[in-house]
Amino acid sequence: MFKEFPEGFLWGGATAANQLEGGFNLGGKGLSTSDMIPYIPKEERDGDNSVHITSEQYNQALNDPTNGNYPKRWGVDFYHRYKEDIALFGEMGFKSFRLSISWPRIFPNGDDLTPNEEGLAFYDAVFDELLKYNIEPVVTLSHYEMPVALIERYNGWTDRRLVDFFVKYAETVFNRYKNKVKYWLTFNEINAIALAPYNAGGLLHDRHENMEQSIYQALHHQFIASALTVKACREIIPGAQIGCMLARLETYPETCNPEDVLKTLQAEQMNFFYTDVQVRGKYPNYMNRFFKENGISLHLEPGDEEILLENTVDFISFSYYMSLVESAGPQGERAPGNLFSGLKNPYLESSDWGWQIDPIGLRVTLNKLYDRYQVPLFVVENGLGAIDTINENGQIEDDYRIDYLRKHFIQMREAIEDGVEVMGYTSWGCIDIISVSTSEVSKRYGFIYVDVDDLGQGTFERSKKKSFNWYKEVIKSNGTNLDG
C-alpha cells in the first residue's frame, strides 16, 4: 500500500478545446489558429513537430470551409457528447477536469463588440454537467486557439491591441462563470511561442522580417495580458485561484564537464524565464543579456513594469512529459519530443513516439520549481501517448500506460514528502484526442478509447481501457492503491 496524497488533492484529467470539441463551424464559433493545422501522415513528417504554417498553407485552410484534412475541426465530438464524456469522468471519480474555453467560440473574430451567446451557453452547460458530478473545472483561457481574424487584422500577438481584446474576453467569462469556476489558467505552455510562434502567438514566419524580435514582443504582450487577467480575476471572482502554465523542460548536462553544466544552466534559465516574469513579476537579469546579445529591443509602455510586479499568479501549473539532455560539445543522437527535444539519454526508455520516459525527473522538477518560487504547483499535463490495440475480446490492455502513470505518481508522492506543495494532477488526454502537432489521433493518451482514426473515420463511440478502472481506484484511494 502506498502513502496517501494530501486531503483535497485534485485528481483528474486534462484536454484542450481545439483537440477535443469539434463543432468548428457550429454555435456561432469563428475559426481558430488550430482549425488551420492539417494532418501530417507519418511518412511525410520531417522530424520537426513545431507546427510551422506558411501563408500559403494558412490561406488554403482559410478558404476551405469543410472539415477537409483538418482533424481539429472535428476533434472527438465533445461538442455533442460532453454529457456522455463527463459521466465517464464522474464514474472515474474525477475531482477536477482541465479544459479550455475556445476564444473564437466566445468572440468569433476576437475583436467583436459583443460576445456570442451560443458559445457562452455551451460552456454554461458543460460546467453545470461537471458540477453535477462534483468535478471542479480547471479552465485555461488560451490553449493554442486564438481567433484567426486577429492574424488577418493585427498580425497576431505582435500588436498591442490584442491585450485589450484578450482582457475583454477574460472579463466576459469571469463574469459569466464566476459562480461555477474557481481555478483558472491564463496561457497554456506560454514558452511554446519560442518554437511554435504560429500555434502560440498567431505569427506566420513569412510575414515577419525578424521572427525572434516578433516572438519576444508578442510574448511581452502576452505577459501584460496575463497580468491584467490576473487582476481582473481577483476583482471579479474573490477567492478564485489563477495560475500560469509552463511546458517544463527538466534538463541534465551530458557530462560533468563544466561547459556542459553551464550550457544546461542556460537552457534551464530560458525555461524558468517565463515563470520568473509571471511569479516574481519582472524580467530576470539574464534575459537582459540575452536580448542585448541577440539584438532584441522590446517596446514597453509606461506602467508595464508595475503591471507585471503587482499582478503575479497564485500558483504554477505545468506540463511534464520527459527530460532533456544538453551538451556544449558535438551533438549526438537526439530524442524527439513534441515542441522541444534534446540529446538522447542512454539511461531512459522511450515511448512509441521516441519521447524519453523519466519519472524521477518529475520529482526533480517539482523540487526545483518549489525551491525557486515557493508557490503551490499543479501538474496539469502528463501522460503516455501510445498505439492502443483492441484485442480479440474487444478490450485494450494498456498496462504500459498504467506502468507509466504509477511510476510518475510514486515520484510525485516523493516530492510531496520532500515538502513540495502540490495541488493536484490532471492526466493529459484523459479521453483520446487529436495530437497538437501532427493532428493525429493514433497517438492515444486516454483512459477512454474513441473509435476514430487519423482521417476522421469511425463511429466516435467511447469505450473504457484497462487503465480506466485502475485510475478510478487510484482516485478512490487518494493514491494509496496504485496496483489496481
Automatic annotation (TrEMBL):
GO terms of biological process kind:
carbohydrate catabolic process
Write down the InterPro entries for this protein, in alphabetical order: GH, GH_1_N_CS, Glyco_hydro_1, Glyco_hydro_1_AS
Can you supply one Gene Ontology CC term for this chain's record? cytosol
Q: Which GO terms describe its molecular function?
A: beta-glucosidase activity
Where in the sequence is the active site? 381
Alphabetical UniProt keywords: Glycosidase, Hydrolase
Top-level division of the source organism's lineage: Bacteria
Q: Which Gene3D superfamilies match?
A: Glycosidases
The family classification in the record reads: Belongs to the glycosyl hydrolase 1 family.
Record PANTHER family: 6-PHOSPHO-BETA-GLUCOSIDASE ASCB-RELATED, GLYCOSYL HYDROLASE
- List the protein's name: 6-phospho-beta-glucosidase
Tell me what organism the protein belongs to.
Alkalihalobacillus trypoxylicola
